[in-house]
Design a protein that fits this description.
The chain is an alpha+beta fold. Helices cover 45% and strands 21% of the residues. The chain has two domains: 4-189, Reverse transcriptase/Diguanylate cyclase domain (Alpha-Beta Plaits), CATH 3.30.70.270; 202-347, GAF domain (Beta-Lactamase), CATH 3.30.450. The protein has helices at residues 4-7, 11-19, 22-25, 35-47, 62-69, 71-89, 113-125, 159-175, 186-189, 202-215, 220-234, 278-284, 286-295, 328-347, and strands spanning 52-59, 93-97, 102-107, 132-133, 142-143, 145-152, 181-183, 239-244, 248-251, 256-260, 272-275, 299-307, 310-319.
Length: 348
């Protein structure tokens, strides 16, 4: 991907190329800079007090792409994303491979928040780096990613601090539902505590959902509210809504009716419906969109409450984060909760 000519403009790489061949510096799959040389390059920039912005890009659901389509398709995704990112940054930046499905990049042109916001937005909307289908011979997986960004020297004056803050920004993006970029802002992000995969293992989540569902045996509404109080933290959602045996839509946080929605069944494909824009929700069910708009909810995950072919109603996660990427584990937990509710309703 990178050539000797493109790297020679940087003193560090120019010196490195005196002793090493280009292939030794580049990642063999993607053609961008290997991790160790990228990190040393960042150290050199700090030593020379050169201003720059650093971004860490983590591809969303990459393991799912590998598992579903195979490693050849996964490799094609990594190659295309890294190449498109390098092309988008052009002469103003440089890209390295940070890990399996993570990339690290440096941008030199500006550290201004508004300028960075524009360039990052263009990576998602304009340059086909992310939120795009990568076409291979047999399939075209839709690829998204989450970016955490920091600037030197504004955010930190040492390399360790830069990586720590970039991880906070990246973590914040994942907490918000992935498929987004977060530019570190001290006032907003300084108190973030990065937890090593806070998504509990799905077994633990389902065990705790069962426990919370069983805590109170008074009514189905109280049971759902108990589970809501747990899931809103673990699944990082804004709310849960449900219907039971009629068209009234109930807010799990209050157990109160928020409106009437008909024909939710028509939204479901393969037992589930997911969306991450209010326009899609409006096209699928305008009554639901009418309720969600003033609540500023734009991403939902819906399934039916069903047992042995009998539908008792519907339940949904709702999120105020545009373009949330719903994870398979989140879908599994919602379906499991719907089965718990259906089991209870079938006996009461």
């Amino acid at each position: 991907m990178y050539s000797e000519k493109s790297l020679n403009k940087y003193d560090y790489f120019s010196d490195l190329l005196i002793d090493y061949k280009l292939t030794y510096i580049l990642d063999s799959l993607t053609g961008v800079i290997k991790r160790q040389y990228m990190i040393t390059f960042i150290n050199k920039l700090v030593e020379k007090n050169i201003k720059f912005t650093m971004g860490i890009l983590d591809l969303d659901n990459f393991r799912y792409i590998n598992d579903k389509y195979g490693h050849q398709v996964g490799d094609k995704v990594l190659i295309d994303v890294s190449n498109h990112l390098a092309q988008a940054l052009g002469e103003d930046g440089i890209v390295g491979r940070f890990g399996g499905d993570e990339f690290i990049f440096i941008y030199f042109k500006s550290n201004d928040y508004n300028d960075l916001h524009k360039i990052y937005k263009s990576l998602y909307d304009q340059y086909y780096v992310l939120r795009t289908n990568i076409v291979t011979g047999s399939c075209s997986p839709f690829v998204t990613g989450t970016i955490g960004s920091v600037s030197y020297p504004e955010d930190s004056t040492n390399v360790e601090g830069l990586f720590e803050l970039a991880e906070k920004a990246l973590y914040r993006g994942k907490v918000k539902g992935r498929n987004c970029f977060i530019i570190y802002v001290k006032e907003k992000h300084k108190d973030i505590v990065v937890k090593k995969e806070e998504n509990e293992d799905i077994y633990e989540t389902i065990k705790k959902v069962t426990r919370n569902f069983d805590i109170n045996r008074d009514s189905i509404y109280t049971k759902i509210q108990n589970v809501f109080n747990y899931l809103v933290r673990v699944e990082r959602i804004s709310d849960i809504f449900y219907q039971i045996k009629n068209d009234d839509l109930i807010d799990a946080s209050t157990s109160k009716k928020v409106g009437v929605v008909k024909n939710i069944e028509n939204m479901l494909v393969d037992d589930i419906y997911s969306s991450n824009t209010i326009l899609d929700i409006d096209n699928a069910n305008s009554e639901l969109a009418t309720i969600f708009r003033p609540l500023k909810l734009s991403s939902i995950l819906v399934t039916r409450i069903e047992k042995e072919g009998i539908t008792y109603g519907y339940i949904m996660y709702a999120e105020d984060r545009l373009n949330r990427i719903w994870q398979n584990d989140e879908k599994a937990v919602l379906i499991y909760l719907s089965r718990l509710i259906a089991e209870y309703l079938s006996k009461n």
